[in-house]
Structures are given as structure tokens and as C-alpha cells.
Amino acid sequence: MSEDHRALLVRITGRVQGVGFRAWTRDEAARLGLTGWVRNEADGSVAALIAGPETAVSAMIERLWHGPAGASVSSVEKQPAAIAEMPMGFRITR
Length: 94
What we know:
By secondary structure, this protein is an alpha+beta fold. The chain contains two helices and five strands.
């Protein structure tokens, strides 16, 4: 991965399940040209791997704080992700 690209594992908490958060995340990531995945977690949070250009990743983190209509985000926790190569596309996983 080049130096101007980064990957983050993100955990979003609050009212983020049952409000279309995963589909919204996939669509926003596509708009920004990001790759990775998003999924619901058993504890009610949403997890995502977000990879791409530094500026696009930063923009996505800001957007995650707002989410789709109906969401109420309490926290967006992020940590660097070590990935061997950039994932292809952005998908919803289970």
C-alpha cells in the first residue's frame, strides 16, 4: 500500500443498526472511491474496514459521525489496519 493510502478498522456505536447504516456506508464509500467492507456486530455496533487515499478515508470518518437519516452515532473508534493489499470494491458482509 502506498504512503498516501491508508486502511482503518472502524467501530461505530449508537443507534446504527436497523437504520440502513451498512447500505449508506457502502454508498458513501463508493462515492469517495474507497474499498473495504461493513457489517453489523452482535453487540449492536457496526464495524468497517475502510481503505483508500488518506483524504478520502478522513472524509469517510467524518461522514460516519453523521450516518444516514435515523441513525444516532455515539462513537467512531478507529485503529490502523495492516492489510497486505487493497481490497477490491466495497461490500456489505455478515
